[in-house]
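Let us practice reading a record.
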Amino acid sequence: MPVRFNRQRREVCFVPEGPRGHEAPVFVPWESLMAWVVEARGVTEYGMMQQYGLGLGYAHPQTEKWLTLEFMAPAVPLAMGSWEAIRAYMEYEVDSLRDIQDPEGLRGPDDPPYEGLHTLRNARKDINQRRRNGEVGWLFTLCWYLIDIIEGWNLPGYLAEWETRRLKKAGPKRLPEAMQAWSQPLPREQWAQPSPALERLSVEVTRLHKQHPNRPIEQLFAEVYRKEGLTA
């Protein structure tokens, strides 16, 4: 069951899994949510392996039991970036994927927010443009197209779009009724507001970010926390 973030209510909805399947949805205040990045190393018969992930944790409102979720990520910066995208969305710094997507990536400004035929067409336009610019040679381009043909040409795009349509049709109906009701939009006057402490911290982070735009965002947050005498 997906984790849902509702910025109008400033809450996060989890559906824990128990011995008998999915339990009742749990609604957690946004500002009480904990997040961390996992970096694990181990040795196997194939050599040293490294794993990374983004973790989320909360205390169950009724039982006070600490519950956690972890999601795999290819690297630490990408795990941090995933959390920063969630945080920016919840604090109204971004409204959609279009606000944070790479302008030179494989999703155009008018493309839908999922992978499909448009992703493959954009990739081919990109490799052709790189070939014309002299960034890659003809041999690289030829091998790129050979791999594209082996992978099925447009077939992966058709499958991705079919899966997206299937999920859009069936997904909302499978959500618990409590989650569906919680996901409905609220009138503007009923929107939850951030706490004064968070607003004060956010102003300080914004100020530091303007002074040091190239510093990693997690370092800025850590510095503000230290100045306030807070610990995560």
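A brief commentary: The helical segments are 76-90, 117-132, 138-150, 155-174, 177-182, 196-211, 217-228.
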